[in-house]
Prior knowledge:
Radius of gyration: 24 Å
Strand content: 15-25%
Bound molecules: zinc ion
Structural class: alpha/beta
Strand order of the largest sheet: 1-2-4-3-5-11
Mean pLDDT: 97
Shape: elongated
Number of domains: 2
Largest sheet: 6 strands, mixed
CATH architecture of the largest domain: 3-Layer(aba) Sandwich
Number of strands: 12
Order of helices and strands: HHEEEHEHEEEHEEHEHHEEHHH
CATH superfamily of the largest domain: Zn peptidases
Amino acid sequence: MLETIKKIAQEIGPELDELSKNIYDNPELGYEEFKAAAWHTELLEKHGFKVERNTLDLPTAFVATYDSGKPGLKVAYLSEYDALPSIGHGCGHNILGATSTGAGIALSRVIDKVGGQVVVFGTPAEETSGAKVLFAEAGLFDDCDLALMAHPSAGYARSGKSLALFAIQFEFFGKTAHAASHPWEGVNALDAALVTMNAVNAMREHMLPTSRVHGVIIKGGEAANVVPEYSLVQYYVRSLMKSYNSELVDKVRRCAEAGALATGCTLKVTNYELPYDNLISNETMNDVFAETLFELSGIEIAPARSDTGSLDAGQVSHICPTIHPYFDVADGEKVGGHTRELASCTLTDYSKEQMRNTLAALALTAYRIMEDPELYKKVRKEFENAPK
Ligand SMILES: [Zn+2]
Ligand SMILES: [Zn+2]
């Protein structure tokens, strides 16, 4: 099977290179990835997938399914194709999407032997308000048994952790007054924001060092001689575990309540972006991926990274066993994420070769778990027992 999948990856490689290059040349922001979604779905249809477009009324989302018609596991590959403002594919989602779609196609060619289904989920807007969160809320991953994707990067690395993220905003409503002649008649919304931020700063000393709470005052008044009647504060609250993050969000909310109480303002609390769950990497799947990648290409994957932000793949990992490893496109160069340099790296012959290695490893990892019920039991057990 190893040689078969390796051969398939070489066969479909040129089509995927073209897909990646076209998307690179036509960068589209989140929820505007019309061309990218069209090219992905055309290719998947050409390879026998049944494509549902406009998933959840999101014009650039899709679900592409290849069903063996036999009982077995349902495997999800998560595809992304959104770009960043002004730097295009600085996160490399052009080659990321091609790799996931390629893994889906490769697995579909051999799935008849193990049964089950392979689904490529076209998930828009990873960089902003990720559609995986909406897919998760709508239950689209509920019957998936495994989810896999790999992100381009400088160097190979095992799937690790990402931070749960909660985007909370506070609006304070006070009362305007002349700041010199009648300040006692005013209710100062800026002061409410400042009390909140000071309280949050004090709270930081007593939170886990792995959490992050960072905020800005978006609006704090219009003129120095007018008591501000309105202020708007936005925070990101992040932690390694969703459960702890919820506790932290409650504390931050209480800081804002303190600001309102101290100043006499009224307070409105809302979310300004979708919340992301922390990524729980399935170590059993991680091991299979590492072994498979090594057998296919001799590449030794590095341990998971400790520096991390937040990913919408986190949501999926709370619903089914998931991995999100990194694959190398930089060939020894020091290249950071969200840069023009990383974008250009996705077009080299070296990165094309790594895309083939990676999609083959993603396909074969799933295949090996699909054909081995004991192995899947182990994956599942680890998933069920993982702290959330
Ligand atoms: Zn990014
Ligand atoms: Zn990315």
